[in-house]
Amino acid sequence: MRFVLLSVLLITSLTAVAADGPALKRHHLGEWEKDIGYSGVVEVNNQLFISGIACAGKNMEEAVKYCYTTVHEILKKYNVTSDQIIKETVYTTDIEALIKAIPTRKSFFNSDKYPAATWVQISRLYSPGDLLEVELIVQRK
Questions:
Q1: CB atoms within 10 A of CB 31
Q2: What percent of the chain has pLDDT over 90?
Q3: CB 76 within 8 A of CB 39
């Protein structure tokens, strides 16, 4: 009986936290997201969680330019700048090529205002031709 009462109290309190918690707004950047089952951007309070932006190109330099141009277009849509990116995670199929493209990546940030970042080499991304995927957490003002 004690276990049942404790379980009911725990479930009730978890439900109350979820009901009173921050509102989530889910945004789609493209129709394919619904087909796969994810949201391109999830907004929670004053933060944006941007799903991985996958990028291909004839080389890493081109893929990096494409990725960060796309990042800036998304940020502009939400009235934020690269200064407000607090966390960046980059997945790449070639870390050495990404390291060589650091100057190109850095050019997309203002006045040395870089985010916390993690770069990980993996064997493959969702689409076989993609060279990197950039995932972001952004703080809105």
A1: 7
A2: 67
A3: no
Q: Compute φ and ψ for 99, nearest 5 degrees.
A: -60, -40
Concatenated DSSP letters for 61-96? HHHHHHHHHHHHHHHHHTT--GGGEEEEEEEES-HH
What's the confidence (pLDDT) of residue 128? 92
**Residue showing tokens 């309070």:** 45
Q: Which two tokens stand for residue 8?
A: 């009911």
Structure tokens at 29: 């950047």
- Find the angle CA(35)-CA(38)-CA(41) to the nearest 5 degrees: 130
Tokens representing residue 12 in the block: 């009730």
Using DSSP's 3-state secondary structure scheme, residue 132 falls into strand
Structure tokens at 28: 């789609």
Q: Round to whole Å and give the CA distance between 101 and 98.
A: 5
What is the DSSP-derived secondary structure letter of residue 137? E
pLDDT for 20 equals 64
Segments of the chain with pLDDT less than 70: 1-20
Q: Is residue 84 a contact partner of residue 50, using CB atoms and an 8 Å limit? A: no
